[in-house]
Amino acid sequence: MTTMIRPLKPSDRAAWEPLWTGYQHFYEVVIPPETTDLTWGRFHDHEEDMHALGAFDDKRLVGIVHAIFHRSTWLPKWTCYLQDLYVDDVKRGMGTGAALIEAVADLAREHGAGRLYWMTHETNTMARKLYDRIAQRSGFIQYCKAL
Questions:
Q1: Do 69 and 80 touch, CB atoms closer than 8 A?
Q2: pTM, entire model
Q3: How far is CA 34 from CA 28, 31, 37, 55, 97, in A?
Q4: Model confidence at 87: pLDDT above 90
């Protein structure tokens, strides 16, 4: 079985939503439906620098990744932030996550980005094994302040 990765289309919403919900459940967050609707719309708005890709096995969506392009004060080129990555439980550890990351890296190269970066929670040990194998940790610690 070959995994195909492609940009998600508006017609993929019904397949995307369970994975998006699974992602939220994994991180123990609840994103309001209005925000989910807004986010889904941004993925398909050509004025937005947000992208959603999906990994498909035999037409079944088994993984999702979301990427956002932005400017940086440190680089002359665009920067690509891989914000969300989620793979169905039955496909974890089979290369789907790595394939999605590489697809975002390809997208970043196509857009002339100079860097691709992402974060994960320190307790996400399975993902960290993959990330430690394919990328370098920056050493930075993230802080968040509610506004």
A1: yes
A2: 0.92
A3: 18, 8, 5, 25, 27
A4: yes
| Cα–Cα distance list, 144 to 74, 104, 122, 131 (Å) | 21, 25, 15, 22
3-state helix, strand, coil in the chain (%, to 5): 40, 25, 35
Residue 139 lies in a domain: no
What are the tokens at 120? 């994960």
Q: Number of folded domains in the chain?
A: 1
- Asked, for residue 146, whether it belongs to a domain, the answer is no
**Token representation of residue 116:** 């691709």
CATH number, residue 36: 3.40.630.30
The predicted pLDDT at position 58 comes to 85
Q: Domain containing 101: what range? A: 3-134
* Domain assignment of residue 141, yes or no: no
Task: Assess if residue 147 is contained within a domain.
Answer: no
Is the predicted pLDDT of residue 1 greater than 80, yes or no?
no
CA-CA distance, 98 to 134, in Å (whole number)?
A: 8
Q: How many CB atoms lie within 10 A of CB 146?
A: 3
* CA 137 – CA 147 distance, rounded (Å): 28
Indicate the SS3 state at residue 50.
strand
